Hints:
Helix content: 10-25%
Largest sheet: 8 strands, antiparallel
CATH topology: Glutamine Phosphoribosylpyrophosphate, subunit 1, domain 1
CATH architecture: 4-Layer Sandwich
CATH class: Alpha Beta
Mean pLDDT: 84
Strand content: 25-35%
CATH superfamily: Aminohydrolase, N-terminal nucleophile (Ntn) domain
Radius of gyration: 17 Å
Number of strands: 14
Order of helices and strands: EEEHEEEHHHEEEEEEEE
Distance between the termini: 32 Å
Number of domains: 1
Amino acid sequence: MCELFAMSSRYPADISFSLECFARHGGFTAPHKDGWGIAFHDGHDTQIFRELTPAANSPTVNFIRSNAFSSKIAISHIRLATRGEVSLRNTQPFQRPLCGRVHVFAHNGDLLDLEAHFPLRDCHFSPIGNTASEYAFCLLLQRLQALWAQPGTPDLRQRYTCIAEFARDLRPLGTANFIYSDGEYVFLHDHKRSQSANEAPRPPGLYWLCRSCEAKSKHLPINGLILSSKAPGQKAFMAASVPLTKENWVALAEGEIVVCKNGQVLPREALG
Length: 272
C-alpha cells in the first residue's frame, strides 16, 4: 500500500529528504517503487515535484536534499501501483486550482466502483490519469466548489463538514486514507491499511506527531527526513502512514479526521 506524509509548521521550515529511511520506502526497505511526489505550499500556490523513478534512487530527491525548500505545508506520497499504469499522470500528490488557490490531495488504498457510485457532474474537474485516487480528488473539488465560489473564504466548519461527508462516502468502497490541504489547513482522514504483507487492512491508517523545534531542543532524528528552522517558537506537525521515529506517534481512529494549522492540531470544538 502507498505511503503518505504531511508536515504543517508554525513558520516556514526547510524540508529535505535524506534517503536513510523514509525515501528508501520507495523501492528498498518497502515495495513502493512506482513513483513518488512532494508538494510544497507557498501561500495560495504550490511547488510540486513528481517522478516515476523510485524515491530511493531518485536524482530529484537528491536535489531536494541539497536545496532545502522552505514551506509551512508539505505533502508527500510514495506509490505502490494497484490501479492505473505507472505514469506521471497517475503519480501523487495531485493538485488543482480552485477559486484562486491551489489545492493538494494524496490518497492510499483501493476504492471500488467509485465512478459508478458518484459520477462527476461536469468536466471542470476531470481526472488526467486513471486512478481512483485522482477521481476521488475531483469529486471532492466538485463538492468544495460551491463553498469556495461564495464571496469570502469559507469558514473551517463548512470545509470540515464537506470533507467529513466526502470521507463518509468513500469508506464503504475500500480503503480511504487521505491527506488534503487548501494551503491554509491540512486535513487527515484515517481509515485502515495493511499493517504487514498478506494482511487484510485494519486501523490505523495514519499516525501524527507534534514537535517544538527550538534550536536547543533534542529530538530523535526523523528517518529519511530533515526538518530545520531558525525561527524561535517553531512548532511542527507531522503525519505519516507509519511512525518515522520511536517517539509516541498518535494513531488516528478509524474514520477520524484531524485538522492542523501552523504546526498544531485544532481542537474538536473548532470543527463543529
